[in-house]
Design a protein that fits this description.
By secondary structure, the chain is an alpha/beta fold. It is built from eight helices and nine strands. The structure holds adenine.
Length: 233
């Protein structure tokens, strides 16, 4: 998979070199290119924003640098582009969307700042490419960078060869096979600061352990995320 990221803060993406995503780059599973939007400006101050038509607080990202950036990226590689725009006005990002995006050949993350990107850029993307506007949650970040990092990590770990043991993808919270929050996990020592590991986990009785874990997962989900139990999807 090829990933392009366009941002006015390319340094935000240095952590992509770490951990599983970094290893996926080293193994050639993904190819990542981070671009500075200001490279597609032509004025002395490398201006990327301007005041909103109609008035109001804040600034809006100008369409011209985005248009040039998208044209350049389109010409740089042959794969069809899926444009991902992180925005609090997007569809809530879910594990199902991560699985869907993991099928794509090329993802281009367009990270907005300020009050967002001129709507005509979004409309242009919708017409010319596949476009996905995603929100990380019902809160406002300073820009799309942190959301893009989260989406990249969620997608890349689903690609074959990235996570060492693919069985771990099945049991985890929000996996399509198992729409429950994950059960609690324990490791050695058996007693820590007077707190014991639940007895059942020493029993070696796999069916009973599986039943206990499912019960714990259901209990947690009912307590913390009753919406997941109510949603038949
Ligand atoms: N940009 C600013 N806030 C955001 C959010 N909640 N999700 C995605 N992108 C954002």
């Amino acid at each position: 998979m090829r990933l392009d990221v366009v941002s006015i803060f390319p340094d935000y993406f240095a952590p992509l070199q770490l951990s599983l995503v970094g290893k996926a780059i080293d193994k050639g599973i993904i190819d990542v290119a981070v671009h500075d939007l200001r490279d597609w400006t032509h004025d002395r101050h490398n201006t990327v924003d301007d005041t909103p038509y109609g008035g109001g607080a804040g600034m809006v990202m100008k369409p011209e640098p985005w248009g040039e950036a998208l044209d350049a990226l389109e010409g740089a590689a042959p794969q069809p582009m899926t444009i991902v725009v992180p925005t609090p006005a997007g569809r809530p990002f879910t594990q199902a969307m991560a699985y869907e995006l993991a099928q794509r050949e090329r993802l281009v993350f367009a990270c907005g700042r300020y009050e967002g990107i001129d709507q005509r850029v979004i409309d242009h993307c919708a017409e010319r490419y596949e476009l996905v506007e995603v929100s990380l949650g019902d809160y406002v970040l300073n820009g799309g960078e942190v959301a893009a990092l989260a989406v990249i990590e969620a997608v890349v770990r689903l690609l074959p060869g990235v996570v060492g043991n693919p069985a771990s993808l099945v049991e985890e919270s929000h996996s399509p096979e198992h729409r429950l929050l994950e059960y609690p996990n324990y490791t050695k020592p058996p007693v820590w600061r007077g707190r014991e590991v639940p007895e059942i986990l020493f029993s070696g009785h796999h069916a009973k352990i599986a039943e206990w874990r499912l019960e714990e997962a259901r209990r947690r989900t009912a307590e913390r995320r009753p919406d997941l139990l109510a949603d038949p999807e």
